Amino acid sequence: MNPHLDKLQTYPxxxxxxxxxxxxxxxxxxxxxxxxxxxxxxxxxxxQQALAENLAGLANYPTTLGTEALRGAIAGWLERRYGIPPxxxxxQVLPVxxxxxxxxxxxxxxxxxxxxxxxxxxxxxxQIYEGAAYLAGAxxxxxxxxxxxxxxxDYDSVPASVWERVQLLxxxxxxxxxxAVLTLTDWENLFALSERHGFIIASDECxxxxxxxxxxxxxxxxxxxxxxxxxxxxxxxxxxxFSSLSKRSNVPGMRSGFVAGDAEVLKKFLMYRTYHGSAxxxxxxxxxxxxxxxxxxxxxxxxQYRAKFAAVTPLIxxxxxxxxxxxxxxxxxxxxxxxxxxxxxxxxxxxxxNVTVLPGSFLAREAHGVNPGQNRIRxxxxxxxxxxxxxxxxxxxxCNTLTK
Length: 404
Prior knowledge:
InterPro entries: Aminotransferase_I/II_large, DapC_beta/gammaproteobac, LL-DAP_aminotransferase, PyrdxlP-dep_Trfase, PyrdxlP-dep_Trfase_major, PyrdxlP-dep_Trfase_small
Pfam families: Aminotran_1_2
Strand content: 5-15%
Number of strands: 13
GO molecular function: pyridoxal phosphate binding; succinyldiaminopimelate transaminase activity
Number of helices: 14
CATH class of the largest domain: Alpha Beta
GO biological process, one term: lysine biosynthetic process via diaminopimelate
Protein name: N-succinyldiaminopimelate aminotransferase
CATH topology of the largest domain: Aspartate Aminotransferase, domain 2
Helix content: 25-40%
Order of helices and strands: HEHHEHEHEEHEHEHEHEHHHEHEEEH
């Protein structure tokens, strides 16, 4: 067996299952889960129709590169969304079966396992980043998020000796779980580090279309364009971005996303994926084209999330330290004032009020003497507004019993 498998930690939701083992939730309450970030809004009918109308494509092997029409639709969306120069669909865009599998497999393609490499990751983080690093033969290095910096990571704190060994930097903007968005200054500093040390930046942007302010979140390709890195001899050098239709279009089961950016990196990644056997089926490609070409359903989706956050956040703020995030569909709340740890809070809330939340320590690792997820909980506001409000009211009741 691959010895690197022994380095993998239990996934957060399995940890949650173990935490709840032996607990019988209060039967007076119907179950409400805020634990998993799985979109619950209905899939738009026009996407379902596009999928159904192209089922004949199941009779054909799809190519790893995907159809020209799909790559063109993705490139067009990137141009419209971020105001960047048109990407070359043939060399700078690659369809993938959801951003998760591509974020993992990129590390397998770009890491030199003999180089004792480092993969830098935010902390808390999407656990795929850590597993990808280990199974590529590298070591993860975690940079803690800082509440005083709107949960941004302080990359200036990373020693030069670490940067010299870095081959891949994972970023998540808007972030999971805190929803923080990287600024143009953040990007400028990171691009400079990438230029100096030669590492690849993998920007995970799957939450980019769920935001709560007037301005959409800044994207990596957009930042590179503003900073003049899109028109140089090697456009978007060492930069690749990942996005997905799962959250944007409420099709998590369709497994459809893309990676875009540096043509040289994508050329090697395409070769890897050709052997990996990860081509997207033609019906899914057709449905994806329909989704990327429409913004009306995205705007409606965003408004539904805004309504939920407007209804739920003020209630939670009565009893926990929490603020409206820049973007994403999570609330990242500090439970310290309840006197309970994040795991105790989650277990008792489940037992007494049948509401599931995810302990923040499950989403992070102890690094530099601290687990930045400790004493926090992540709440995914993916259910409909009424259910979310009911969950918030139960949390308020629970916290009030603690103070009494």
